[in-house]
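From the shared-data thread, chain only:
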Amino acid sequence: SIHPQLPKWRAQFFSDDPLQTQTTYFNQLADAAETKLFDTIAHPDLIKNHTRHHWNPVALLDTIKHTLDRIAKTGVAMELNTSGLNKPVAEMNPFPVMLREMQIRNIPIVLGADAHTPKRVSANFEQAYTLLQQVGYTHTTHFINRTPTQTPIPHALASLTQSTFV
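Structure, as tokens:
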């Protein structure tokens, strides 16, 4: 993930022009994917919460599409993160139009909740799976030892209601 809230990132990359700051952020997402050091790019539009007064995804759509084209070529997955529902721009990361653009490019999708506490594990996953289906995804991806495995969304949804604890 690119973390635009960190002081070091802000000092180096924040600009007086919010659109330039956002463009830099999205270019860095693609740069990260192209290193192939990562299996997944996390919360891919986090910048919206740090430039929220100037967040205009329509103005960024060409930049975002170019970023996604670059990421799609790498095979790196991207995350749908439910914690965005608790942020200043209260929507999952990424926003639905970007998520649909990811699906169009067949970018593998993983699901995350930024569960920094046990209570947040799988928070809002039912809503996330519904959103994934609405934009055309049929399965999610998870990694074991850097090897991707795909799970059909109906199977994943069913697993949320099945208790595996005795």
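The longest strand covers residues 139-144.
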